Amino acid sequence: QVQLVESGGGLVQAGGSLRLSCAASGRTFSFYGMGWFRQTPGKEREFVAGISWSGGSTYTDSVKGRFTISRDNAKNTVYLQMNSLKPEDTAVYYCAADVRGFGSSSSRPYDYWGQGTQVTVSS
What we know:
- The chain is mainly beta.
- It contains no helices and eleven strands.
- It has strands at 4-7, 10-13, 18-24, 33-39, 46-51, 57-59, 67-72, 77-82, 91-98, 112-113, 117-122.
- The strands form two sheets. Strands 2, 4, 5, 6, 9, 10 and 11 form a seven-stranded mixed sheet that branches. It has a four-stranded antiparallel sheet with strand order 1-3-8-7, with no helix packed on it.
- The radius of gyration is 13 Å and the shape is globular.
- 35% of the residues are buried.
């Protein structure tokens, strides 16, 4: 069983920055693919960014150039640096772990999910 705990959400003005963290339990974190997803009320959960076990990353188009996903295997932590935030980035952000290591843009391969952290961007 893997536990994921997100932190770093909050309220920020448009144009500001936040860094989300997701701490994972377990001794095999370095083999996991990790992803960040977000969800707003009444909408499907959507992919934001993913990182494979080897460090390859992928992003949804709307965040390219603004968000950066990274991982620190020594700390069992994945990060999402969010810059130039927009009101439309407002959502609950979830991290997820894929034990197969891919960090896919689809939610289906992910085995474990965190509880989420709220990000609110004011205009």
